[in-house]
Structures are given as structure tokens and as C-alpha cells.
Design goal:
With about 675 residues, the protein is α+β, with helices and mostly antiparallel strands. Helix content is about 35%, strand content about 20%. Helix 6 packs across helix 9, helix 6 packs across helix 11 and helix 20 crosses helix 23. About 5% of the residues have low confidence.
Length: about 675
């Protein structure tokens, strides 16, 4: 197979487009590469797709070479045989299962300017789908894998700067989710029914927000839709690819293509976004963890920012890195390079594919700390559960690793743990260590381990049946209650191991449970303790269990906060909603995907997922929130993540008799 002889681009504003000749689906793909200038308003389309595989979780090479046992049954007998996994792609009975499970598609051959070129299986599939039929005009489209000389690092660097211009100038961006391999038709039908239902509820001006939510969630037709199919669609690889953020945010118009199915992107994104805003996407969470929801919201928000550029400022790189943290890319450096065209401060990073991703991340961190007089970037550091492939110190955020919580500094939690102190940082000569000054406030005694992080309530269901019509629905609803009950019960066990609370410790607990802030950032009044009591009771007991917490906890606060015997004629459901809604929203805002802990001094707080007993809770001078650090036994520490420690969020430590010390971060 020949290597295409790319001609050098003449200017920094020039690129190439692929002109594809019309043909039937199975015809050879014949095309040509042409140079165009982005300054002349050329007419072309652009493709947004996944290089590797459209389905999430593709098998590794070792799995592809393993043998699997198969069985085909007819009316008389069952035929079993062993096949190599990768050979299932060519098997008439198992090809769809192979693709559905993430099996990669074979590369395809295109004929470009008289030269045969091999392209990836996904690209080959989409070119066959998008190619115009005989008698139509040429398809002029920009495709990164072909239009960029991937062997020329300087040209790749040049295109990173031009990528936003390319997608901004394209008449339409074609989003390729992959071929149809299962229940995609049911997924889009579900989305259509949801959109129509939401329009009807929205147009009913008599309904408030809660009433809309209630009617949607209890609509039997809605409950009977194929939510599992829609969840599977949202789990496709395209929704995790970092470059798609820019490709969609900059697009003048975009359409989704899934096999032969075509959908308008704006309608698709609006429907998913509205479901999240109304908090009616619970059915998607019930079927599996829909990773794409927040990603779609990010792309829609950035797209809206572009359309309202006069009134909405572009986001900063650091914030956008956190928002796009779940996205993936082939080259780790693209976690940064892939979003530079969207942010207001792209000059803080120089695109250079000749240096390692670890060095790219470290240089950005050092530059930020030196130029911003702020520790904010350190709050984005989070020790992952699995060891990273990158060799990074703990004080450099690894943007390739998932981070399931939001840093308090990004949430804008009102705090100034280090008071008005000034930043004091120094780097080692080899830039492997960071030195700073601060105080150790406390250490973790016990962490509540039961909470599922990330939230993932994937449940089994009968194949081909709508999720809420399967025989497992009762088990799912029961299991959700039991998970909530167990988690809250475990938190209370950690908080009060002797099952005794004083009025002071009870107040400390409920205030810590919402980081001592309402959803709006205000300090809650004392009656929020009643909200907490009701919230705990609703999570751990049936609402009909009068006085249940009295039986469970020996607490001096029970008479002050027990509402179970007051206003007993009030509807339990309405009472639960009224008393817990505000508290639950504040809890979800500040503590989502965090772990509750009790310190050695008996204080309560929140840490990141990988915190454990023995970790230190510290402040660095100039910092807003505490850090959770892990001592290595030789006087050095690694950053585990940011944290909340009740009673030490507003500079209290600066006036306390706590020894100052140096921190050597590795």
C-alpha cells in the first residue's frame, strides 16, 4: 500500500479537503485531496467521528485472539463450536454481537488521486454512508485523518491552531456515531417521544417545575420507553472524544448520523439538556451510567457561548480542562491542545508534539503557579484509583484520569481556609518537587466507603424489553432504596460510632453535610437541622415509620428535631418533598461524589474518592480550601485532593495555636 505524497501547505490559513465522487454503498471510494484557503470562504463540510471504535470498551488485542464458545440452535439440535473472537466479525450469526461488544472494524481502502490508501474501519464506514448517490454532486468534506499529514509534526501543530477555524467555516458538521448494531431505532424513537412530552408539559403554563417533573416521571408511556437503548446510544465512544467539544462548539450546523439514521444535533442536545435541568433523567441512570449527559451539556454550553460571544466571555483553560476531564483522546497532550480553540487564554500553552504529555502537563502547572499568584490549579489534583500511564508528581493534575467530583474552588464554595495569608511556593531544581508552607489541621480517622463513586446504578434487564417493563423493575426500585439506606446509615455510623450525639455534634454534622452553605452559598439558619433530620429519615426509613429514628439513635436532639409526630395528617409524600428539597439540593451541589469522614479530633468533613484513614488535612498559605495529603513516611507528602473540614473553612486555623511547617510535595 502506497503512502500518499502530501504537498506542503502554502500558508498558515490553508488546509486540504477531500472531494469524494458519487457512488453506491458497495462501490470503491474514489476521491481527491484539494488545497483550500480558509480566508476565501470555501464551501465544504466537516466530519466529527472516532478514529478507533464507535462503541465504548473495545476488547484489547489479547481478548481478540482468544477463543469463545458459540452455539446456534434450530428446531432439531444445537450446534456448538469454538471461534477466535476477532473472527466473529465475518460470521453471519455473530457479526452484530461482535460490533456491539466493541469489536473493531477492519480498515478499508480508498482510491485517492490514483493512489490506494488504507483508512480506519470507522472512517471507511462513514465515507460509504455519506458519499452521494450516482448523479449527485461531489461530497467536499474535511476529514482530519486524511486532510492532515499525520507524519508531519509541524503540520499537525499548525492544524491545532486552525481547527476551530475549520469547523467554524464548515457549512455543516457531520457527527458519526457509528453503524447500527442493536436498538438504535428504539433509542431515537424514545428521544422523540421524550421531546414531544416535554414540549407538551412546557406549554402548559399552569404547571410549576415540580408538577412538570412529577407528571413526566409518573407517565406510564414514558416509563415504558426503551430507556436502556437510549442509554446505550449515549455510551458510544464519540461522546467521550475530546476533539468533538471544539468541533461541535464551533459548528454553524450539525447533524447526527448513526448508520442510516439522521438527527438534528441541536434538537438532540436540547432534549438531553432539558431532561437534566428538570431532573427527569433518572430513567437513564436506572438503565446504566449515561456518561454523555454532562458532556452534551458542556458542548451545548460552549456552543451557546460562541453564539452569544458579545455577552458571554469564553471560558478559561483551567475550568474547561476540568469540564472535559472525562473525554478521551489518542494522544494525551490533546487533552490540552484539543480545547485551546475554545478558551480565552490559549497563549498559556505552546503546542509542541515533540515533548511528552507529562512534560506538557507539568509545564502548564508550573506556568500557572508562577503567573497567577494562585494555588487554584492544585485543587484540580486528584489521586486516581488506577495508576496513571503518565509519570507525574501529585501536584500536577493528570488530565487523562477521571475526576468524579468538582473541586470546591470551581464550585465557588465560599471559603478562605488560610485567611489572608500569602502564597509561599518553591520548586526543586529538577521541577520534580513543590515546596510550600502551611499547617496540619487534623488527620482522617475513618472514611465512609460504601458510596458508589462514580454513581453507577446499572441494572440487568430482559433483552428486547423496555427497561421499566422488565420483571426486574421492582427489584431495581427496592435496590435503589436499599443503597440509599445503607449509605446514609454508614455515614451516621462513622459520625457517631457510639451512636450518641449531643446537640453540638448533631449541628456540626448537618452543617458539614452541606458544607455549611445553602445551594445559593449562604450560611443556613438553625432550622435547617430539621431539614436534615427529615432527609435522613426519608433516606433510611419508610415515611410511615413513625418515630423510627428514636429507635435507632440515642440522641439528645430527638425531641428538638423529631417531626414525625407533628402535622401527622399531612400527606407524607408532600411533607417529605417540602422539608427535604432545599437540603437535598445543597447537599448535591457541594458534596456530589465525595466521601464523608470523621477526623481524629472528632470533626466532620468531605474528601475525594481515594482518601483513607491516616491522611492529613492541611492548609497551604494562600489557599481557599484545605488539602488532603498522604505522608510517605519520610517527611514528604502527595496530594490526594481538596477537602472540607468543618470549623476550619474561614481562616480559623490562622488564629489557632497550630504549628507552621514546610510541605515537601512529591
Amino acid at each position: 500500500m502506497s503512502i500518499y505524497p502530501y504537498k506542503p501547505l502554502d500558508t498558515e490559513t490553508e488546509t486540504r479537503v477531500l472531494e469524494i465522487e458519487p457512488g453506491n454503498y458497495d462501490d470503491k471510494i474514489v476521491c481527491s485531496l484539494k488545497h483550500i484557503s480558509l480566508l476565501t470562504n470555501p464551501k465544504f463540510e466537516a466530519l466529527s467521528y472516532c478514529w478507533g471504535n464507535s462503541m465504548s470498551g473495545p476488547p484489547d488485542e489479547e481478548t481478540l485472539d482468544k477463543k469463545v464458545r458459540t452455539a446456534v440452535a434450530d428446531s432439531e439440535k444445537t450446534i456448538t463450536e469454538e471461534l477466535v473472537y476477532r473472527d466473529l466479525e465475518d460470521h453471519p450469526q455473530y457479526q452484530r454481537i461482535y460490533y456491539f461488544s466493541g469489536g473493531p472494524r477492519k480498515p478499508g481502502r480508498i482510491h485517492c488521486d490514483g493512489i490506494d490508501m488504507m483508512v480506519g474501519g470507522e472512517l471507511y464506514s462513514v465515507l460509504k454512508r455519506l458519499r452521494p448517490l450516482p448523479g449527485s454532486d461531489l461530497l467536499v468534506i474535511w476529514v482530519d485523518a486524511v486532510c492532515i499529514n499525520q507524519f508531519d509534526l509541524e503540520e499537525r501543530k499548525l492544524h491545532v491552531g486552525n481547527m476551530s477555524k475549520i469547523y467554524e467555516n464548515a457549512e455543516i458538521v457531520r457527527i458519526w456515531l457509528g453503524e447500527e448494531v442493536g436498538s438504535e431505532t428504539q433509542a431515537f424513537e424514545t428521544l422523540k417521544e421524550v421531546a414531544e412530552k416535554m414540549v407538551g408539559l412546557f406549554n402548559d403554563k399552569k404547571l410549576g417545575g415540580f408538577e412538570r417533573q412529577d407528571r413526566f416521571l409518573h407517565d406510564q408511556k414514558i416509563r415504558g420507553l426503551h430507556w436502556d437503548s437510549l442509554s446505550e446510544l449515549l455510551g458510544r465512544s464519540w461522546f467521550e472524544r475530546v476533539w468533538v467539544i471544539q468541533e461541535i462548539a464551533k459548528a454553524a450546523k450539525a447533524t447526527i448520523h448513526c448508520g442510516r439514521i439522521v438527527w438534528d444535533w441541536d434538537t438532540f442536545a436540547l432534549t438531553i439538556n432539558t431532561m437534566r435541568i428538570w431532573d427527569i433523567d433518572i430513567f437513564l441512570w436506572a438503565a446504566s451510567e449515561p456518561k454523555a449527559i454532562e458532556e452534551i451539556r458542556l458542548m451545548r454550553r460552549l456552543r451557546s457561548s460562541r453564539e452569544n460571544s458579545g455577552s458571554t466571555p469564553s471560558p478559561k483553560l483551567l475550568e474547561t480542562l476540568q469540564d472535559s476531564r472525562k473525554f478521551k483522546c489518542t494522544f494525551p497532550s490533546d487533552k490540552i491542545y484539543g480545547i485551546l480553540g475554545l478558551v480565552s487564554d490559549p497563549e498559556c500553552v505552546e503546542v509542541d508534539y515533540s515533548i511528552s504529555p507529562s512534560e506538557v502537563f507539568k509545564r502548564y502547572t508550573i506556568s500557572y503557579l508562577k503567573n497567577h499568584n494562585s494555588l487554584d490549579i492544585l485543587y484540580y489534583c486528584a489521586k486516581p484509583k488506577k495508576k496513571s500511564e503518565l509519570n507525574l508528581p501529585s501536584w500536577v493534575a493528570d488530565w487523562t484520569q477521571p475526576c468524579h467530583h468538582e473541586p470546591f474552588v470551581l464550585l465557588k464554595l465560599p471559603s478562605r481556609a488560610a485567611g489572608k495569608s500569602k502564597i509561599d511556593i518553591r520548586f526543586s531544581h529538577d521541577h520534580k518537587s513543590l515546596h510550600t508552607r502551611g499547617k496540619v489541621l487534623d488527620s482522617i480517622e475513618e472514611v465512609e466507603p460504601f458510596r458508589k463513586i462514580p454513581r453507577n446504578s446499572k441494572m440487568f434487564h430482559e433483552e428486547g424489553q423496555p427497561f421499566f417493563q422488565s420483571r426486574h423493575v421492582a427489584w431495581v426500585e427496592h435496590n435503589h432504596r436499599e443503597v440509599s439506606r445503607k449509605w446514609v446509615s454508614n455515614v451516621l455510623e462513622v459520625a457517631f460510632p457510639n451512636r450518641v450525639a449531643t446537640p453540638q455534634s448533631f449541628e456540626a454534622l448537618w452543617r458539614a453535610f452541606i458544607c455549611n452553605r445553602t445551594q445559593e452559598g449562604d450560611i443556613p439558619s438553625a432550622d435547617w437541622g430539621q431539614h436534615f433530620y427529615r432527609w435522613v429519615m426519608s433516606m433510611t426509613h419508610d415515611m410511615s415509620e413513625t418515630g423510627a429514628l428514636k429507635k435507632k439513635w440515642k440522641s439528645e436532639t430527638r425531641n428538638a428535631y423529631d417531626l414525625t409526630e407533628k402535622a401527622s395528617s399531612e400527606d407524607p409524600y408532600e411533607k417529605s418533598v417540602r422539608m427535604t428539597l432545599c437540603f437535598n439540593k445543597a447537599f448535591g451541589t457541594w458534596c456530589y461524589n465525595r466521601r464523608f469522614f470523621r477526623s481524629k479530633a472528632g470533626r466532620f468533613g468531605w474528601a475525594t474518592d481515594t482518601a483513607m484513614a491516616g491522611d492529613d488535612i492541611c492548609i497551604f498559605y494562600g489557599g481557599d480550601a484545605p488539602f488532603v495529603l498522604r505522608p510517605d513516611g519520610s517527611g514528604r507528602h502527595e496530594i490526594i485532593g481538596d477537602g472540607y473540614l468543618h470549623g476550619f473553612m474561614d481562616g480559623e486555623a490562622m488564629g489557632a495555636d497550630i504549628e507552621e511547617r514546610d510541605f515537601h510535595l512529591i
